Amino acid sequence: MNTRLAVASLAVLSAAFAPLASAQNYPTKPLRMIIPFAPGGGSDFIGRIAAQQLSDSLGHQVVVENRGGAGGSLGVEVGMKAPPDGYTLTLIAASYPVNPALYKLNFDPIKDIQPVIQMSQGPFLVAVHPTLPVKTVKDLIALAKKNPGGLNYATSGQGSIVHLATEHFASMSGIRMTHIPYKGTGPALTDTIGGHTQLIFGSIASTLPFVRANKLRPIAVTTAKRIGAEPNIPSIAETVPGYDVTNWHGVIVPRNTPRSIVDRINGDLQKALSNKEMISRLNADGVEPAGGTPEAFGARIAREIELWRKIVAQAGVKAE
User: Fold this and answer.
1) Architecture category of domain 124-238 in CATH
2) N or C: which end of the chain has fewer CB within 10 A?
3) Residue from 282, 265, 276 nearest 60 by CA
């Protein structure tokens, strides 16, 4: 009997210390990075940068796997249902905290994840067709108040982060505009450049080239402060105090992933974000390095989930 008890106790202890031993040896095989969006966009770009940096620092390849659908929720669900062993990482974007207000998720967006690090941050750019008689946010608000619902704004889709960012601006400014959703940023920009819509909240990377080509007029950026790359473009907050919408990306893993593994990935990506080449590549996509602790990233996610729930409810937005 004593022998059996000893064997049973040893088995329990071995099971208890197995995750610790696994974490100490991590990694011993290739990893995968789930990007819950189609290839070719800004999220794909940043996810592949992260995968490349981690491949170098961890000594094992990080294989990228694109899993688009439902605003990114489908890919995140796959990632969060993976074993919590540090071998499946998931990239999330600023749309992540929007989705709980729009979709019925099969996971808890706070309890079922372990935030690792915020990778990037940057604004959306508010731009108008050059024929629109506005040059400032103040002008835009005044024109919209004169003609409620008369201004058409283009977005990359119903319930997208830019749709809600625009509705948030309209609500805080006391104006009403008409939403024209498109299937992607490309057609939304094309119709704004063509004058079929008058206004767009677009990513810096996709919108700024048309501003520099004088095909669109810049009005403001959505972050609380101006950005170093374009210091002459004011922030919306300079006219509408308190307005602040950030376009960001970050990495998460399933809950119960050993803290030592989370800290390892955080540390490796933190170092990568201070690399001059990395900074240059992010700047080229219109964003800046972020970094920080898993706790700080988790707090941002929780805070923005509550913000977007309120905005979705106020605007009566529903997913397609």
Assistant:
1) 3-Layer(aba) Sandwich (3.40)
2) N
3) 265
Could you tell me where in the chain the CATH 3.40.190.150 domains are found? 29-122+247-315
- Is residue 124 within 8 A of residue 200, CB to CB? The reply is no
Contacts of residue 291, defined as CB under 8 A and 6 or more positions apart, other chains included, come to 117, 118, 119, 269, 270, 273, 274
Chain-wide mean pLDDT for the chain?
90
Read off the tokens for 166: 């625009």
pLDDT for residue 11 is more than 60: no
Model confidence at 22, in pLDDT bands (50, 70, 90)? low
More confident: 5 or 119: 119
Q: What's the chain's length in residues? A: 320
Q: What phi, psi does 275 have (nearest 5°)?
A: -75, 135
Domain boundaries 29-122+247-315, corresponding CATH code: 3.40.190.150
Helix %, strand %, coil % for the chain, to 5?
45, 20, 35
Model pLDDT for residues 54-72, shown as the tens digit of each residue: 999 999 999 999 988 877 8
Helix, strand, or coil (residue 241): coil
**Beta carbons of 124 and 188 less than 8 angstroms apart:** no
Delimit the CATH 3.40.190.10 region(s) of the chain: 124-238
The Cα–Cα gap between 41 and 115 comes to: 22
77 against 156, higher pLDDT: 77
How is residue 123 annotated by DSSP?
-
Closest residue by Cα to residue 185 from 81, 292, 41:
41
Q: Is the preceding peptide bond at 27 cis, omega within 30 degrees of 0?
A: yes
d(CA 292, CA 274): 12
Name the 3-class secondary structure at 287.
Answer: coil
Cα-only R_g, the chain: 22
Beta strand pairing call for 88-93 and 31-35: parallel
Q: Closest Cα to residue 174, out of 227, 258, 239, 118?
A: 239
Q: Return all residues near 270 (Cβ < 8 A) that are at least 6 apart.
A: 117, 291
pTM: 0.85
